[in-house]
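Standup notes, structure subgroup. Blocker cleared on the P53 input:
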Amino acid sequence: MSFKNDFLWGGATAANQYEGGFQSGGRGLSTMDAVTGGGHGIPRTITYRTKEGKIGTSPVDSTMSGTVPEGAVGYIDPDVYYPSHVATDFYNNYKEDIALFAEMGFKCFRMSINWSRICPNGMYEVNEEGLSFYDDVFNELLKYDIQPVITLNHFDMPMYLADHYSGWSSREVIDYFVYFCELVFKRYKNKVKYWMTFNEINVLTSWTQIGIHDNSPQTVYQALHHIFVASAKVVLLGHKINPENQIGMMVACTPSYPMTCDPNDVLEALQFNRNREFFMDIQVKGYYPEYKLAALRSLGVKIEMDDRDLDLIRKGTVDYIGLSYYMSTVSSTDPNAERTEGNQFLAYKNPYLETSDWGWTVDPVGLRISLVQIYDRYHLPIFIVENGFGAADHVEADGSIHDDYRIKYLQEHIQAMKDAVDIDGVNLIGYTPWGCIDIVSAGTGEMKKRYGFIYVERFDDGTGDFSRKKKKSFDWYSKVIATNGEKL
Ligand code: P53
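Run returned:
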């Protein structure tokens, strides 16, 4: 019982946090190239240049939210450290890294394609060198029977589109994105079967992610509408190019519990959770749900649509639901409820849960609850494409790394997945723990917050030789895969 025989065990990464090579192989600039390191309680910033030529910075919070003023463009300061420029250098280490993934027994590997590596300015142009880089990567994966799982857009975009179109607030960007997707669907037709369109579509609010210059509800929802239409078009196109393609959506799943059984708290949590379900309603069911239309009306948001948009959204629904799950949160209507300090995700303390050093709750039962709720509501296969424990690892004198805390977190979450499959009947198709090799943290920009089974010698001050080392969790996860999740 438990996991299917072809269960997709693997690991997950994203180009802007892992790939590096930002000026190699004809790649264009990407928004994330202008995002600084941050860390140790200091937020990351976007560096920009205004129309008048003034250099400025604006903060990016841990939800990646942050914009630059109207008319300003991304700017790279030669004296500043930008973690994504080299990241942990997959670009020059992919063979070695993939060999290590194969050693762990990975059946799949999730990564994103950097749009500006294929289309340097995001428009109708093709960088052959970029296409052939991913050919090499996919060939290497397939050599070991590792299925690539490709995120078409993970928290970045060609900087040119952010600078000249205010990103996704312009309708033209739909066609540019569809063009890019058509290129990669055709090029990798015989290499890639699993795709997902937009990473964590429910948290897209920033210049770095979607190129917008203000994050008023009007701008965000108009941009999201374009993203929904683009995603639907891409799903239809991907199915046409290869009917075997499995194309999913991807949502950040941070479920909220009511603080008490006060019906007002229950309602508050329900509204919070609906803000996430909205995205699945659109991309799985294929329509704008009434509760969101009502909320948009009361916010005074008016979305401009083309006649065909709703029809496209109805037709271009996805094949599976991809989700990230790290933690749960709490909703309350009590003004005196205990608040957490300066944590933008988790406003209230849950007295039943422990937290990581970064204040993220550890809640495996919350994962099981979410799987049940999502499966009951949508009846689509579910793929957990992110989960994991960010921690500061200590390298012992003999080079070993005893990350028992990470093993414990993953053990408990895999057990919760098993229960969801065995007891609750959820159709779960795969599991790719986040940052299976150490990569840059999205929220903090740090290397210190590590998730990997593989350690990368790279530090926040820009030093380190990029060498790779196995952590204790490496052997543990290998055994989990070898026993198809029986031995935790
Ligand atoms: P870091 C919100 C809630 C949960 C995860 O995060 C989130 C977000 C949005 O920031 O992001 C995902 O690196 C994201 C990854 C990211 C990962 O969580 O801040 O898809 O890119 O690295 C972990 O610890």
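Discussed briefly. The first strand starts at residue 8 and ends at 12.
Next: hand off to the docking folks.
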